[in-house]
Design goal:
The protein has two domains: about 60 residues, lambda repressor-like DNA-binding domains (434 Repressor (Amino-terminal Domain)); about 35 residues. The chain contains six helices and no strands. By secondary structure, the protein is mainly α.
């Protein structure tokens, strides 16, 4: 489930930049510190539903514009086995899912 926060953060960052706003500006508008916005954009800090609305309002978009298109898919058992015993972080798992999904479409 962590990858949904990574994707949310990626969308937030893209929309914030399109609005020519800094992390500081967003943080000030919604009563956070800049590091919280940084952590949200990097998927490290989870956001509540009301925060989705506040963030969207702060950058002038609809809340649905910050939400991923679909729920992330789990890695297949074959792919998990092929990765071996090495630990893999959530960002890497997310990127692998995106690549596999793109090749299947």
């Amino acid at each position: 489930m962590e990858q949904i926060y990574i994707e949310f953060g990626r969308l937030l960052k893209r929309r914030r930049k399109e609005a020519n706003l800094t992390q500081d500006a967003i943080a000030t508008k919604i009563g956070l510190v800049r590091t919280s916005v940084t952590n949200i954009e990097q998927g490290r800090q989870h956001v509540s539903l009301h925060m989705v609305f506040q963030l969207a309002d702060a950058i002038g978009v609809r809340p649905q514009d910050l939400l991923p298109d679909r729920a992330p898919r789990p890695l297949s058992a074959d792919l998990e086995r092929s990765l071996g015993e090495r630990p893999i972080d959530e960002t890497s798992k997310y990127l692998i899912r995106r690549m596999v999904s793109n090749t299947q479409n």
